[in-house]
Each structure stands twice: as C-alpha cells, then as structure tokens.
Amino acid sequence: MLNQNQTPLLDALKANAARPHAPFYTPGHKQGEGISQPLVDLFGKAVFRADLTELADLDNLFAPQGVIQEAQQLAAEAFGASQTWFLVNGSTCGIEAAILATCGTGDKIILPRNVHSSAIAGLILSGAIPIFLNPEYDPVLDIAHSITPNAVQFALQQHPDAKAVLTVYPTYYGVCGDLSAIANITHQYNIPLLVDEAHGAHFAFHPELPIPALAAGADLTVQSIHKVLGAITQASMLHIQGNRIDCDRISKALQLVQSTSPSYLLLASLDAARQQMALYGKMLMSRTLQLANEARTKISQIPGLSILEIPSPAYKGEDSTVQRFPPLRRLSVGLGGSPGFVALDKTRLTVTVSGLGLTGFEADEILDEKFAVTAEFASLQHLTLIISLGNTPADIEQLVQGFTTIAKKYRRTNLNVKSHLWQDFVNTLSPALHFSPREAFFAVSEILPLIETSDRICAEIVCPYPPGIPVLMPGEIITKPVLDYLQQIQAMGGFISGSADTSLKTLKVVK
Questions:
Q1: The pTM of the whole model exceeds 0.85
Q2: 312: which DSSP letter?
Q3: Dist. CA 423–CA 317, nearest whole Å
Q4: How many CB atoms lie within 10 A of CB 392?
Q5: Residue 418: is its pLDDT beyond 70?
Q6: E-only strand ranges, 173-297
C-alpha cells in the first residue's frame, strides 16, 4: 500500500515555485514577472509562480521517472488501476490514444453510435473502421441509454476480427449499462474493452454509486477528473489493467495527442484531487449524494416536473414485440430495467420539464437569467445538472426555488415540439459508411449550401453541443431527415459544433 497522504508532484511544484533563482527558461512571463496586470488582478501572482516548465525536479510527462511517476502510481492505486497516465489535453486525448493504441488503418472497432466526438477523432487519426451499435432507447423520454451485452455479442459474431470494443459509461444522463456483461463477452474474443468514463471518476469512492469501469472488467478507462472531482478543467486520467493493451503503445499514442509543454498546474491538480479522494472520498461523496437526494426529492414533488430514475422492470416501452437486441444500425426500443439501463449515477440530475409546456432550452434560459442557476446542458424535454463535491446546500435551495417558481409562473398549456427526435434521427441513419472517417476527412471536399447537401458524403463532424454526440461524421451519407433534425435542434436553442459553419447554412462534403 502506498501512502495516499503524499502529493509528490504538488510538493515539488510548490518547492520550485518558492525557490529564489534567475529563470532563463520558458514560459516567457518568468513566474509572473512579465504577466499582464489584468491577469494579475484576476488571478493574483501566486498561480504564475507555479506555472513552470519541465525542470529537473519536476520530471517529464512523456518519460516520467520522478515525481510524475510517483503521482501516477498513487493515482493507479486510488482508482484501482495497474497503471495510470495523467492527461493535460482532457479526456479527448485519452480516447484518441486508446483507439490509436488498439487499432490501425482498416481495423474494426465496435462502438455506440452516440459516442463523443473525440472517438470520431480517434477513428480519423487511426484509420479504424467503426462498427456502430445503436443504444437502447427510451421512447417516452426520448433518451438514448447504453448499448447492450447482446448487441455487442451479435456484433462480435458478425465481426470476429474486430480489434476492440468501446462504450460510454455512464452516459451524459448518468445512465450505466451492464458493463460487466459487456466485458465478459468482449474478453471471450480476447480483445480489450475501452471505456469512455469521462463522467464517472467518482464511482470508485462510494458504494452507493455505480460500479467503476475497472471493477466491472474494463481493460482501459478514461476519466475527466475535472468534470466531477477537484481537478482543474482539462485535467484527466487514463487507467489500464490486465495485459490486453500494450502500455508502450499507450505512451507513444499519448505523445501524438498531448502537448509537449504540459501545464504543471493541471498535473499538480490531478495529484491533489487524487489525494483528496483517497483520503476523504467516501465522506465527500456521502455529502454529495445527500445533496442530490434532497434535490431529487423536492424537485420530483413539483407539479409538472419529473426526475430520471431507473425504470421499473415491468416497463416494456412502446412495442415489447420488437427484437430485444437488434442487429447493427437498427433501433432498440426502450425496455425498462434492461441491460441498457442497470444503474444510475444519483449525482446526475435529469429533470423532465416538458410537463410545464417548456423545452429544456427555454427552462435553461429562465433558470440562468432569472434565478442565476446554470445547468450542465439542455435538450428538448430535459435539463441535466451535475451535483458534485463542490456544491453546497445553498446551491440546492436555489435550484429548487428556481424550479418551483418556473412551475408557477412560466408554465404553458402544451409543448409544441416533436417528442421523438432521437428515434427519428436513428431511423434515418445511413446503412453503412460510404468511406472510412479518415478517408472522408482527408478527401478533396467542397462547401455547399445546406439545401444542396442531401445524399452527399459528409466531410466533417457535425454535432449539437453539449453533449457533443455527432449527428454526422466524415464518410456518412447526408440525408434530408438528418438535416431536418439538426435544424430543429438549432431552432430550439441548441448549438451546432464541429462543422466549419456553426450557423449550419453550409456543410463540407466530399467532392
């Protein structure tokens, strides 16, 4: 057992920041002496004294042998990994590196269609061929959950030459699928299970939270420590266990996608966040869960509002006769209590506001402007909020008061929007990619008005953000229903990202 009280990297940075010396190295502001006054006024000088480069005592992120190595070893033990890498380019670079380390050009990888855009970037960089699975779908709430074990089994039977399986756990809504079963099936083919666990870094620290990905059998997981724990934005970790993944390939892949001038402020925040959770994690998560439960209870009692919970096993969706785990590129109708939704992160609060006759976008705007309450993201029917160790009882009181007032003062008779947009989108997906994402991304392209792009091959990533799930990606056929979907999301207040023209008046297509 390592001494989790230690913070080797943080201590080394503190010592070097306080050491009197004449600095003739980067960064140019020289420990804040050359920083602009407006930045000093905002942050103070102390943070800039610690903004240092790879000095001898501070180790090297790409070849760690000192304090970074020690900090990563402590993190591996705290999070249950055999080896951990610190990430300063967010979980994005971790997902990209995971794909680069396991797949080469032409290799197949099985993954959900609702992956984050970073996975699509990994496909473009690696040249891997995606075998997409549609997640289970809740037709009442219009929410996509997790892919299912049988869907993974079916895909591997059809593509036994796949090099890896990647899944999202939890989803942006906090929904967790049956990861243990997916791991068992994946390992029967002796290939690794990669997990985008960006929103689940806290799972390892409380028994009332879903099982962590590594404990469920994942070979590799990427966690955004900054999203739900106490690290600085952009600070993440990549963990592995077992021998299905070559550690050297992970290290080399990370060198391709991480900065060669890593921020030691970010690295030190990972060291400190790990220590905080290793020593006080259960207590902090108990308090966080208590706040979340209070919010769930009070908001669920407000007329017109409801909270996302694990569905009853008796719930059978709209059509219980639909094949439970359908083939690739087919929709799985939501089945309550199914392997697509076996656990829920109770610190993630999704409030359905459509019962008030409001869209999530409208409710989000009202909460923000009238009550100074800012949600994580909005969708057509819902608002999703993250309750973390940084929230206070006053925050919960302000949130509940905001929803209470909205329900009384802003309620409308009905909500005049389509309630099955995700289902409509899934039903219009192309049966297959025309080109690989890499081929389409690097192909000769042209920019056309949106109305002229139907039936053309997309050459860029297009996704509403948040949560950053691509609706179009390089290599896919653009269809009119997908264009309609994007325009309706935009009309409802969503933001289109990834594409060169975020106004969505034009799209880039293969020429």
A1: yes
A2: P
A3: 13
A4: 10
A5: no
A6: 175-176, 193-196, 220-223, 236-240
